[in-house]
């Protein structure tokens, strides 16, 4: 400060022959900052809030001990013994919990992959527990989940999964400008929602073994994958659909005209399809995953994620508890059809996948379940994927009696459901089946100069029967 004042706010040294401006020392400012720091420290101690240092120390300890850290009490309520003074709430409004949490009863409730007082800390998971299923998985994705008009203003690119990560062009600047004119103005599906309970529902034939419909419908958000109808199977897998994650192959498929389809953004077909849909006389309710999320999948997994794995990781980013139904790749070897809605279709497996891809995806789902990030909604999943004897023992203990695959086909014919070769493949199914509400019920791709707005609706009184732990 003496050097600064002596030189009128400038000084020169042998290392810096050119004078450099140095602001004069402001004792009042320094004292004011120190007072603010002391006041913040006092509030932290009084409210017993976990600071960044606290959270980091707990993560390091958990990682060193090879423990998973899947949930967190953002406030140490257990320390408040009988007769203790009440603890002030952490949050008053949803905005205080950031994009990864929701404010309930004065506390920020975080989605699965985030923790902390205001849900600002990405979960740190022990590599010892994740490997070999997810050896390089980093859950910290801070980008957008849904593509909307505020996210992109230049070229849109996405990482291509594989041994060497390369960028693919989805849209050039002109296409991006055209896209922004028809995209929703903002993300009304995922942004700051932190859904309490989510069910991710796939197509495995194992869903036919149990009457899981009520349990699935009890979740606040039901995410179904691909062209998987619920009509005729309500007892086994429910009727509620809030959102359907799909790819370019199934864009035209609809069980209900108002269903909101969330299409993946892994190729240029996404952009051309969105533009063509908006220009059609009756545009369907379609939104797209943000390419940033697709790139995070490619980089974090090291292989291409199918709908099942992509849907699961999407749910972990936006839900506080995630339960999986029909995602394990069970089939005739486990005494069930490969797909519940195609019991007469011969098993085809994953012949179009690169070698080892199916095994890698299953190992990733196993790793997520092993550390407690997701729960299996069906019994005997791990046992039936491990060995026939273990599968039979587990099912027998629960009174589950599988039957030959041919018998499933005959049952479908007797019930009047068409076999696979006669099943409808595209188009919108008429009528409103079931009582599930669609997240995008009033969402539609708008015409020139207008975006498509997705209206989120859910049953706030529903409670899932399973929790994250």
TrEMBL record:
Q: Which domain of life is it from?
A: Eukaryota
Membrane topology recorded in Swiss-Prot or TrEMBL: Single-pass type II membrane protein
EC class name: transferase
Q: What does the entry give for GO biological process? A: sialylation
Q: Name one GO cellular component term.
A: Golgi cisterna membrane
Quote the EC number: 2.4.3.1
Keywords from UniProt, A to Z, are: Disulfide bond, Glycoprotein, Glycosyltransferase, Golgi apparatus, Membrane, Signal-anchor, Transferase, Transmembrane, Transmembrane helix
- Catalysis performed (reactions): a beta-D-galactoside + CMP-N-acetyl-beta-neuraminate = an N-acetyl-alpha-neuraminyl-(2->6)-beta-D-galactosyl derivative + CMP + H(+)
State any single GO MF term.
Answer: beta-galactoside alpha-2,6-sialyltransferase activity
**InterPro entries, per the entry:** Glyco_trans_29 (IPR001675), GT29-like_sf (IPR038578)
Q: Where is the signal peptide?
A: none
Q: Where is the composition biased (Gly residues)?
A: 424-434
Query: Which compartments does it reside in?
Result: Golgi apparatus, Golgi stack membrane
Q: Where is the composition biased (Polar residues)?
A: 459-469
Its family remark reads:
Belongs to the glycosyltransferase 29 family.
Name of the molecule in the record? beta-galactoside alpha-(2,6)-sialyltransferase
Q: Which organism is it from?
A: Auxenochlorella protothecoides (Green microalga)
């Amino acid at each position: 400060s003496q050097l600064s004042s002596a030189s009128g706010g400038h000084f020169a040294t042998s290392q810096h022959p050119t004078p450099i401006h140095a602001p004069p020392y402001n004792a009042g400012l320094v004292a004011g900052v120190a007072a603010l720091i002391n006041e913040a420290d006092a509030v932290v101690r009084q409210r017993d809030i976990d600071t960044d240092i606290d959270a980091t120390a707990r993560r390091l300890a958990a990682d060193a001990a090879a423990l998973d850290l899947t949930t967190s009490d953002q406030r140490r309520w257990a320390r408040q013994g009988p007769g203790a003074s009440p603890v002030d709430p952490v949050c008053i409004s949803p905005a205080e919990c950031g994009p990864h949490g929701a404010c309930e009863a004065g506390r920020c409730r975080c989605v699965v992959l985030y923790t902390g007082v205001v849900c600002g800390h990405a979960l740190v998971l022990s590599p010892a527990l994740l490997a070999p299923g997810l050896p390089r998985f980093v859950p910290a994705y801070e980008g957008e989940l849904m593509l909307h008009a505020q996210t992109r203003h230049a070229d849109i690119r996405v990482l291509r999964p594989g041994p060497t990560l390369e960028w693919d062009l989805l849209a050039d600047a002109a296409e991006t400008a055209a896209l922004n004119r028809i995209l929703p103005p903002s993300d009304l599906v995922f942004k700051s929602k932190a859904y309490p309970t989510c069910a991710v529902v796939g197509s495995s034939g194992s869903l036919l073994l149990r009457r899981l419909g009520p349990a699935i419908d009890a979740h606040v958000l039901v995410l179904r994958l691909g062209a998987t109808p619920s009509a005729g199977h309500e007892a086994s897998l429910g009727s509620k659909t809030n959102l359907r994650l799909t790819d370019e192959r199934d864009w035209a498929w609809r069980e209900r005209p108002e269903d909101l389809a969330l299409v993946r953004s892994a190729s240029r077909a996404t952009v051309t399809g969105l533009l063509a849909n908006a220009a059609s006389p009756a545009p369907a309710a379609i939104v797209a995953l943000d390419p940033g999320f697709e790139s995070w999948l490619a980089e974090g997994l090291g292989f291409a994620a199918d709908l099942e794995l992509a849907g699961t990781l999407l749910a972990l980013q936006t839900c506080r508890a995630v339960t999986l139904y029909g995602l394990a790749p069970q089939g005739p070897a486990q005494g069930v059809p490969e797909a519940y809605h195609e019991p007469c279709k011969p098993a085809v497996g994953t012949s179009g996948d690169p070698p080892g891809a199916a095994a890698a995806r299953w190992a990733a789902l196993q790793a997520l379940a092993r550390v407690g990030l997701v729960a299996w909604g069906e019994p005997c999943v791990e046992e039936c994927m491990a060995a026939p004897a273990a599968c039979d023992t587990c099912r027998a203990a629960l009174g589950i009696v599988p039957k030959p695959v041919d018998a499933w086909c005959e049952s479908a014919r007797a019930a009047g459901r068409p076999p696979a070769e006669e099943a409808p493949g595209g188009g919108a199914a008429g009528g409103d089946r079931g009582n599930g509400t669609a997240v995008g019920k009033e969402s539609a791709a708008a015409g020139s100069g207008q975006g498509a707005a997705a209206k989120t609706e859910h049953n706030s009184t529903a409670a899932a029967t399973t929790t994250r732990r």
